[in-house]
Amino acid sequence: MSEAQELDQLRQQIDSLDKQIQELINQRAQCAQNVADVKQKYAAPGEKVVFYRPEREAQVLRRVMERNEGPLPGESMARLFREIMSQCLALEEPLQVAYLGPEGTFTQQAAVKHFGHAVNCQGQVSIADVFREVASGAAHYGVVPVENSTEGVVTHTLDSFYDSNLHICGEVTLRIHHHLLIKSDDQEIDRIYSHAQSLGQCRRWLDKNFPANVERIAVNSNAEAARRAAAEEGAAAIAGEAAAELYNLTVRNANIEDRPDNTTRFLIIGRQETGPSGEDKTSIMVSNRHQPGSLYQVLAPFHEAGVNLTRIETRPDPSGTWNYIFFIDFEGHCEDDAASAVLKKLQDIAVDYKVLGSYPRAVL
């Protein structure tokens, strides 16, 4: 058999498999529509039907990765299924997702990574606006940054939970690569725009490569920085590839972040609580009396129950000077026996506490 004959045979096999895959995807889409019909059929009069179930999607993606036998990596296979699930969900109900914009930000990339491309992403000016859009019902869900592996916590996000009744229903992590963007290769740079977090994540590189007279200017988002760099002479921006493409900028220096493992964690916020998925995290907000041992009193129940903490942050309590709120993330769902026992003890110990949400651990 010649090379041409072997290739032709393999291409025929690929065409046959493509046809089968296409038929199966459409069968899955039909099942998704049937799910929507059943939910609406059994909904009580006036009841708001919930089509997107974060815990269910997390379980499906985990199973995809567990049963994957290659040659595609498990994560790559899960990304393909994420898009299939996104398109199928759009047949049930197109999701409106608010994110910290404008277009071209890392938060938009996180929204697409978590929900897939079949959602309507709505860029917002501030984190407070994202919360407001979701609380008002204008968006089903919101995506906001909460912490970065280099620069730490995003305080505006934590503070927004103080007066909010929204729930955390998911998380997504994104590797962050920053580039120095310019309009043309021969331009002089006298100012650099970026978000404050991004400037911090590239601080050592900037100190080494630019003198003190090159101004560093913090703006609301990296996409806004790119827009200004495209419009102003002498301006550069620190942003990602999406912003470079959107504003037709040149990457002068790539991957300028100080740490190669630079990663940002984002939260998905919504109006509904999320059921257990089997691999969950819970976030709570606790305030205690301003007295010796107050932090110990908060943390002791976790140790006694064998519940692992994944993060703890302290923020000023708006209700009083020198009072503080503890933001705590721990492994498990609030419906789990161990977590439920801890929360019951906190209810007796703390001045106030609020469960911000139990949600699936990031899959991708």
TrEMBL record:
Residues 96-271 form the Prephenate dehydratase domain. Residues 7-41 form a coiled coil. InterPro entries: ACT-like_dom_sf (IPR045865), ACT_dom (IPR002912), Chor_mutase/pphenate_deHydtase (IPR008242), Chorismate_II_sf (IPR036263), CM_dom_sf (IPR036979), CM_II_prokaryot (IPR002701), G/b/e-P-prot_chorismate_mutase (IPR010957), Preph_deHydtase (IPR001086). Gene3D superfamilies: 3.30.70.260, Chorismate mutase (1.20.59.10), Periplasmic binding protein-like II (3.40.190.10). Keywords: Amino-acid biosynthesis, Aromatic amino acid biosynthesis, Coiled coil, Cytoplasm, Isomerase, Lyase, Multifunctional enzyme, Phenylalanine biosynthesis. Residues 1-96 form the Chorismate mutase domain. Its main location: cytoplasm. This is Bifunctional chorismate mutase/prephenate dehydratase. Residues 283-360 form the ACT domain. Its EC number is 4.2.1.51, 5.4.99.5. It catalyses: chorismate = prephenate; prephenate + H(+) = 3-phenylpyruvate + CO2 + H2O.
